[in-house]
Amino acid sequence: MNAKSTRTALKHIRRSPYQSLAAIFIMILTFLAITVFTFIIFGSSSIINYFESKPQVTAFFKDTATQQNIDDLRSQLNTTGMIASSKFISKDQALQIYKAQNKNDPLLLDLVTADILPASLEISTVQIQDLGPISDILGKSPYVSEVVYQRDIVSTLTRWTNALRIIGIILIVVLTVASIFIMMTVIGFKVSQKRDEIEIMKLLSATNWYIRWPFMLEGILYGAIGTVVGWIVASSVLLYSAPYLETFLKGIPIFPISPFFLIGVLFGELVLAVLLGILASSLAVLRYLD
Predict the structure, then answer these.
(1) What pLDDT is stored for residue 161 in this prediction?
(2) Which of 38, 150, 151, 211 has a Cα at 20 to 30 A from 56?
(3) Residues 246, 35: contact at Cβ < 8 Å?
(4) What is the pTM of this model?
(5) Parallel, antiparallel, or unpaired: how do β-strands 57-61 and 83-89 relate?
(6) Number of helices (H) and strands (E), helices first, in the chain?
(7) Fold of 57-149
């Protein structure tokens, strides 16, 4: 029955190519959007995780701050539960870092000694949203002369990431609903053309599943073809633009993209496509099986 149902589904597609192309086209658009926004969400999450793993707040201490003062401040920060890691940079260590950064300029090296460089504390928070509260705590300390963190960059990154996720979800929902209605219309039209044939099969004691299965296969084929084409287009664009994006991101470790991730995205979308195809075709056939 499976082979016969498959042949029947393919015959339905061949007999109404324009309607079938319309259904496939909307599925391509739907899964192209799903794939693109999956890549965007993955990339933005990787960027945020990268920044979260780096020292995000740097507090520079006054010369009057003792080691005990600094240790007490670190203990206070750790009690907040917002600190992922912290690293103390002494004056001597700051000098070594300065020398490494300016090793090609002897004049700058002669002008700077450890005494004029401040000790500092580099802090990484659990979440980017924790940067503000931690910065406020450091700024209120009488032993801290300056607090530095890229407030605008972090807040802008978070805001854009959240906006893209919302836009992506809305667009995907709209396209998914549209694809279901279009497949229902296409398959429903084909079912209506076979109304007499369906009545005869029901009189011959054909089960509802036997009647429904070819149309379900047709919906599954629309979804599978749209998924594969949309995934190929999105993945090809991503791989083509990877060198340019890698240069733009300047060392943020997103690339190379794992092939297992790409295959996993395709597999997940195929599962979703099958479910959409089954849902749309089942709704289209339902009223003829009462």
Answers:
(1) 77
(2) 38
(3) no
(4) 0.63
(5) unpaired
(6) 10, 4
(7) Alpha-Beta Plaits (3.30.70)
